[in-house]
Design brief:
13-stranded mixed sheet; seven-stranded mixed sheet; 23 helices; globular
């Protein structure tokens, strides 16, 4: 059997270690990861091997040659331009004239490949994907198979709501040459994104088999670090290539000199020709070849590549050093630091945890390095949630973080593009917006600052000004100690998951674009956009009908945030406004939960003054809560139903709603000859579909307003409907069908989420929906189980024919999730 090793990876997430080294050449316990893969293939009798390369191919070919040293035959196929995974393999099609195995040269595994090959032949498959279990599978392709192992669903790099299994694609495949008939040679084509979905559509024999054993794609520095010790501690069934072993867990290559006073604590690996001077302490580390470690240095839990020179009394803790690094005496390097090749660090300098130092840099004597050299330190988790980038103000979301984020975002745009920026009026938001603006301008982006506004105005401004995108910074309406940074596309809609991942990739790899001084982006200020937003919004409704009714409204709102827009809006419609003056005193807004506590007060004012309407609205104008005279507050689902009813009355024939919306809307729509399309819960998706629907209408021109999350636009529609039909709020609500929706949440650590989703998906039947989370449909109702994208919890939503059924469904699936979390399956 033949094999293909895909060795074109750049290893951008391993920088600065891979700035000038292909990822397959990164050493795992002193030997390139690709060398471990070649040895694995030979173990199973596979010696005729194609190697596809792209990034620095000469480095790989110079090291391995034709493969004689390893007893294999290597044939190289170089990509002149990126062809994708499947495209690169197609490059070697003339060599691959029989069943062949594809394996990555920059991941490490000890799988029994023979089992995968036998499974492929037994099933007479066109393609077999080797699978593994992964607790947090967001960065991988998730695979669902039936009982026979045939693949029924494949999703590349899902978000949490799409994690239907914890069984992932490892990038190891057994394939038939017939796959080359499905796509053209020389074009960019990917196995996961293109070929396998195509094979599913074409109903080819596509199978998956999960193998026991170890697999790690070494996708970041943390995984690279962990893999070293997994091999040393026996968790990987691959040989350790040392010449002698001391005390079972200390390996030493030829020519190593160790002073008798050295303290050695395993697991420990010391490379050929290294010299360890007196008084040195080495503990749980990998030392490369020809390293000089001077007297009384201390190295613990660290990875050193070749030819490093470590000064006397130096301390290294949990760090990774590439080749030819010099640390002078009494230097200290701490946890999670990565130092590129040929870096020189002067005596008594201290490198703080988490720092990255690019190759060929020099740090002077007695320096305190608390940020990465050249590029700032990276964000240690996934950046985006469904609402944007969310984090603790000035702790997780700091000015230096926002500057890097701005540059990463700018690096996904074209030089000279225009971006609208806005924020609420709180000090933290304003400070971060200034930093963001500077980062965008420094990357060649033109910035239009619309001042202090709500997100809806920023969305509107992006479209009105024909900008390339927008960014809005605001304090969270759920937790005022957090800040939210939301990125918008040219339609004013939040960025898609793929667009967010582009920014995240730039940020994590620090692959930033820079411009010359004469290309710095321009800055302009446009505070009039809030007024323009109101003018255009009012043009979309029948103002005269509303004015004739002289509605009176009790409003609980944050005056500092909405004072320049909400009162003016109501005044223009001849509405009398009475404010509760319920404002925060600490320069932060009240959370929406705190605001909802005044519902009885709002209702009492309505009754005492015979007002038509009560409103509680968050400081960003997103969540509009209507209050009747009995003190009852419309739930989010009831508001959703009300807005949907109004849109149907206005002639909408299609509604795009998140999967957890009440089925009552679908029933209501059928009476209007309209259809409901369900989308993922991520608010970006239904908003995007709504805008696209409006763009297809000849009677409407942009900008558009999205009343489900734009509270002022929603209020405009409600007032218009009340005026047109001469109804008060209770009469309007009485037109809506009843429904019974319940929800709950249960804590679940991140690592268990994928396992829980896999077991739940195994219970799916033909009526189960896998749009976002897992939605189980029953004769009496439905239940949706979905993992949260920001917090370690599961949400359970349920709707029933009555309240008891809704609560019963919620309880049933809540208990099922708890059992799966606590179980060992």
């Amino acid at each position: 059997m033949k094999a293909v090793i895909m060795a074109g990876g750049q290893g951008s997430r391993l920088r600065p270690l891979t700035c000038d080294l292909p990822k397959p050449m990164v050493p795992i316990v002193n030997y390139p990861v690709m060398e471990h893969i070649i040895n694995l293939l030979k173990r199973y009798g596979i010696t005729d091997i194609a190697v596809t390369t792209y990034y620095l191919p000469g480095v790989i070919e110079d090291y391995f040659g034709k493969g004689e040293k390893w007893g294999v035959n290597l044939h190289y196929f170089i990509e002149e331009e990126p062809l994708g995974t499947a495209g690169s393999v197609h490059n070697a099609d003339q060599f691959l004239d029989e069943t062949f195995l594809v394996i990555s040269g920059d991941a490490i595994t000890d799988f029994d490949l023979e089992k995968g090959i036998s499974f492929h032949r037994e099933k007479q498959a066109d393609a077999t994907l080797i699978m593994a279990k992964e607790e947090i599978p967001l960065e991988y392709g998730v695979i669902m198979t039936d009982e026979q192992g045939e693949i029924v669903r494949f999703l590349e790099k899902p978000n949490w709501g799409q994690v239907f299994s914890d069984t992932i694609n490892t990038g190891i495949y057994v394939l038939e040459p017939s796959i080359f008939d499905l796509y053209q040679k020389g074009v960019n084509f990917d196995f996961s994104k293109d070929l396998f979905p195509l094979m599913l559509r074409e109903k080819k024999r596509l199978y998956g088999v999960a193998l026991e054993g170890y697999w790690n794609d070494i996708g970041n520095l943390e995984e690279y670090y962990r893999t070293q010790f997994d091999l040393l501690e026996g968790r990987i069934n691959l040989p350790i290539q040392a010449c002698s072993v001391i005390d079972d867990n200390i390996w030493v290559e030829d020519g190593v000199e160790i002073d008798e006073s050295v303290s050695l604590t395993g697991p420990l690996y010391i490379g050929r020709g290294s010299k360890i001077a007196g008084g040195v302490r080495l503990e749980k580390s990998v030392i490369g070849r020809n390293c000089l470690i001077h007297s009384h240095a201390s190295i613990k839990r660290s990875i050193l590549w070749d030819n490093n020179n470590i000064g006397s009394h130096a301390e290294i803790r949990g760090a990774i050093l590439a080749n030819n690094v010099t640390l002078q005496e009494r230097t200290a390097v701490f946890d999670r630091t990565a130092i590129g090749k040929k870096v020189f660090i002067g005596r008594e300098s201290r490198i703080q945890p988490g720092i990255k130092i690019w190759p060929d840099r020099e740090i002077g004597n007695k320096m305190e390095v608390d940020r990465s050299v050249v590029w700032p330190e990276y964000w240690s988790r996934h950046l985006f949630s469904n609402r944007g980038v969310v984090g603790q103000s000035n702790i997780e979301i700091t000015p230096e973080f926002v500057a890097s984020l701005a540059i990463a975002y700018a690096s996904t745009l074209q030089r000279g593009d225009e971006v609208v920026v806005g924020s609420d009026n709180y000090n933290i938001s304003d400070a971060l917006k200034k930093t963001l603006t500077g980062g965008l301008q420094a990357s060649g982006i033109k910035v239009v600052d619309i001042g202090e506004n709500i997100t809806a105005v920023t969305r509107y401004s992006v479209v009105k000004l024909a900008a390339r995108g927008g960014v809005h910074i605001r304090v969270s309406n759920r937790d005022p100690q957090k800040v939210i940074i939301e990125f918008l596309n040219s339609q004013g809609v939040s960025l898609s998951v793929n667009e967010q991942k582009d920014i995240e990739r730039k940020f994590l790899t620090e692959d930033y674009n820079r411009v010359g001084v004469n290309e710095i982006g321009e800055y302009s200020y446009a505070p009039e956009m809030a007024k323009n937003y109101l003018e255009d919004l009012l043009q979309n409704i029948n103002q005269e009908e509303i004015r004739r009714n002289y509605f009176s409204v009790v409003v609980d709102y944050e005056h500092d945030s909405l004072g320049n827009i909400l009162p003016l809006f109501l005044k223009r419609l001849n509405c009398q406004l009475l404010s509760t003056r319920n404002c925060s005193q600490n320069n932060l807004p009240l959370s929406i939960e705190e605001r909802l506590q005044v519902k009885e007060r709002v209702a009492r004012i309505m009754r005492d003054n015979q007002f038509n309407l009560g409103i509680i609205i968050d400081h960003n104008g997103e969540e509009l809560h209507l209050v009747n005279k009995a003190g009852e507050v419309l739930s989010k689902a009831q508001y959703q139903l009300l807005i949907s009813y109004i849109l149907l009355e206005k002639g909408f024939k299609e509604l795009y709603l998140p999967l957890n919306s009440p089925k009552a809307i679908e029933t209501l729509a059928e009476g209007y000859g309209a259809k409901v399309h369900y989308t993922p819960i991520n608010p970006q998706v239904p908003m995007d579909r709504y805008y696209k629907q409006l763009a297809n209408r000849e009677d409407l021109d942009p900008p558009y307003f999205y009343p489900y999350t734009d509270g002022i636009a929603g209020l405009a529609l409600i007032l218009e409907r009340m005026a047109r039909d001469d109804l008060n709020l209770d009469q309007l609500l009485n037109r809506l069908p009843e429904f019974y929706l319940n929800n709950a949440e249960v804590p679940c650590d991140w690592k268990s989420k994928g396992r829980v989703m896999r077991h739940l998906s195994e219970e799916a039947d033909r009526d189960t929906e896998l749009i976002d989370g897992i939605k189980f449909n029953h004769p009496q109702g439905w239940a949706l189980v979905v993992p949260d994208s920001e917090r370690p919890i599961f949400h359970v939503f349920a709707e029933g024919e009555d309240l008891e059924t809704a609560e019963s469904l919620t309880g049933f699936y809540l208990n099922k999730v708890k059992e799966l979390i606590n179980g060992s399956t």
